[in-house]
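User: quick one - fold this with calcium ion bound?
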Amino acid sequence: MDIIELQEGIYRPEFIYHGEDLGINYSKEKTIVKLWAPTAENVKLEIYNHYEKEEPFEVFDMFEDLNGTWKVKLKGDYEGKYYLFAVDFGDRIEKTVDPYAKGLAPNSEMGLIVNLNKTNPENWENDKYKALDSAVDAVIYEIHVRDFSTSPYSGIKNRGDYLAFTEEGTVNNQGLSTGLDHLKELGVTHVHLLPVFDYATVDEENRYEYNWGYDPHFYNVPEGSYANKPEGYQRIKEFKKMIKSLHDNGIGVIMDVVYNHTYYTNESAFQKTAPGYFYRLINNCYLTNGSGCGNEIATERPMVRKFIIDSLKYWVKEYHIDGFRFDLMGLMDKETMYTIENVLHDINPNLLLYGEPWAAEPPHLEEYQKIHKGDQRDHKIAFFNDDFRDAVKGDPDGFKKGYVNGKFETYNDIKNGIIGSIDYSFEVNGFTYKPEETINYVSAHDNLTLWDKINKSVSKAPEEERIKMDRLAQAIVFTSQGIPFIQGGEEFLRTKYGNHNSYNAGDHINQIKWERKTHYYDTFLYYKGLIKLRKEHPAFRMKEPDMIRKNLHFIESEDAAIGFVLKDHANGDDWKDIYVLYNPQHHWSRFWLAEEKDFNIVVNGKYAGTEVLHSFQADNIKVPPLSAMVLYIK
Ligand code: CA
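Assistant: Sure. Structure tokens for the protein plus calcium ion:
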């Protein structure tokens, strides 16, 4: 365990500051600068004309203010100046960037004084949060900014950049839509961006390195390597243009946020301004490592909680962000998550909040502070449902099988997923109170892609069969209650060539290979059809547990097949009864339907959507191997 310094007395209650003005408060006439550094003996503010200058252009003494804060008022217009703090602890002076910085020099070497009014795209004042009645109406598409467009087959000009999300009319080498048009064609409601706040490991000026971005550096500034140039306002302007473009096209934006650790520890702005305060420690000096990345941010401390909430509010208000995914939420304390929920839903009641209810190692927290599955019950926070994920396809990286690729013992866990993991019955129940508390998915950036996992677990099966398994897996996700989530590119069988942890593996492994849209066009259409079915039919999006208990009934089937009916115009659906049937077996499987009625099939192993593929009258039906079927009675 690494050791860091903890300054004596830093936890004193009089050092808890409640003001909303930490960092830069810019106006044309004056700029007020505030820093929380409660144990410092002296603080100076250094102003630089340019980030490459060695010597400051001006130096100001800061004055002790309330609750451990330091303040200085600069007269005149300081827009575009760079700045650092020199924090004097008596035995040493730490030069640091402002942890609350809203603008940065390339590679975060200095803070930048920003006039945010000058960073807004046209018509920004009319830009709205993505409308969303309920979290279960969302269809989430997870994507890394760079992966989205670096392929030469993307047809996109601003490859690897925020601006890729602003380009319309782009096509792959076969003329099929890519980028933004592809997202619209697929029908997703939200993109979930892998980290886009400033992270440490990619040189923003040459971008030779690749990283997912789970290496936080500065939390309140967009990452510079996704801008055409990392200088000045460019990254802020381009980031806002991306948001505006997605909003204009009806797509919400979710940020993946990593408030559980920082990349640097001794060299972090947190440690240089408030030594020891921001990290969890054992014996006041040993860093704990629940993140697996060398430290844990002490979210439970008042000024850390405040920092996180200030940061989230800033992204929501300044950048119009529609939701957040919390990396390793299991490292955050319960009270912080509940406070986040209250504060952010006061601003936008439909904002999406979800995360991983786990950590790399157990967090260094008291038992009552820890987040476990179930702690989201009746809160508007959703958890990734790993039980359902693994039940569908097996373990994330290994050879084990799940329901769609040959292990039918997970039968009951599939049922738990179908009902949104609510308390449905004695045998079938999960961790949620409401379906909006579960993120249903079969793969994400971590671990093997769904296609790679299927290939690994049933490597000898013909491709045709593996594709059937893939479609069945997503049919389960999209017909289950809860919030569906897909990893970007799955819709044309994304592969990372078997790499299960590609965080720094480079563009070749990670990029979306747009030519695959042509090769696997039928599968793309299948995913698109499942999304359309779900979006047009509220029976798949029931909001209350009572509604699910009343309207969703499992039906009789053979062997390991699972069938259920969404009855009586569930959730106002215009179809009376919708039957959903899954057959993961290699033989045909019979399902008993209620009575002899006119049934209309809209999903089978080949096609998915809302168009009637075939109609029939019978009181039972046989479903082909390795496929889902959806049929309805008018
Ligand atoms: Ca960076």
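One thing worth noting: The first strand starts at residue 23 and ends at 26.
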